[in-house]
Amino acid sequence: MISEPSFVLSRHDPAAWTRALRYRSKRELPYDAAAIDLDSPLLLDATVYVDQLKGHLPVDVIALIAARVILHGAPAIAELAVTVGLLDPRDQRTRTTLEPILDTIRHIPAQRIIAPSDEMWLEGAVLAGILARIQGLPKEDRRKFLNDTLMFLMAAESGAVLVSRNAHDFDLLLQMKPDVGVLLYERAS
After folding, report:
1. CATH of domain 33-184
2. From CA 143, how far away is CA 162, in angstroms rounded?
3. pTM > 0.85: yes or no
4. Does residue 78 have a pLDDT over 60?
5. How many CA atoms lie within 13 A of 189 on its CB side?
């Protein structure tokens, strides 16, 4: 059963958000892995899977992942899975591209996958809508923030630290809800 929409609005009153948020400098964002809670599990954003598949995941992030309990968010897995449907099966390159993605998805333990609750969907949609409005996104991009807000809220609810390369979107979300654990990284070259 979904909570009253007014409950979600009391946590995130759209009228309280009227100005665009500014992007902060890197030094103001959570890039320091040493500063995160040692007991918290990690929730991996889609950028982690993509960078791992392309060999661009930084060594310190790889080491952190190897030492922690890992949670996998359904929205991030869906971002990977959509590629399976998008790639043209007639293109000769598709098979080579798909195999590592399918292998990654196959090796995610089902008991480590978390999904947003009904209430979280509602809250995530409200936050995504607020961000789309105050950041001035065009109509066709209004849902841009939805997966990120869901991952962000799942990290908060599960007590996990969300690991992502997406500093822009998570900077904005951290300004709205600064108590959520997030660890940002930059792609290794």
Report:
1. 3.40.50.1010
2. 20
3. yes
4. yes
5. 0
| Interval 146-187: pLDDT, tens | 999 999 999 999 999 999 999 999 999 999 999 999 999 999
pLDDT tens digits for range 23-40: 999 999 999 988 887 789
User: Do 165 and 178 meet the contact criterion of CB atoms below 8 Å apart?
Assistant: no
Which residue has tokens 């809800």? 177
Sheet with 113-114: strands ordered across:
113-114, 70-73, 42-44, 161-164, 182-184
What residue spans define the domains of the chain? Answer: 33-184
Task: Return the structure tokens found at 152.
Answer: 């962000």
Q: Which of 42, 120, 111, 48 shows the shortest CA–CA distance to 77?
A: 48
Instruction: Give the mean pLDDT of 92-107.
Output: 93
| Distant-in-sequence, close-in-space partners of 122: CB < 8 Å, separation ≥ 6 | 2, 3, 5, 8
Q: Are 2 and 122 in contact (CB under 8 A)?
A: yes
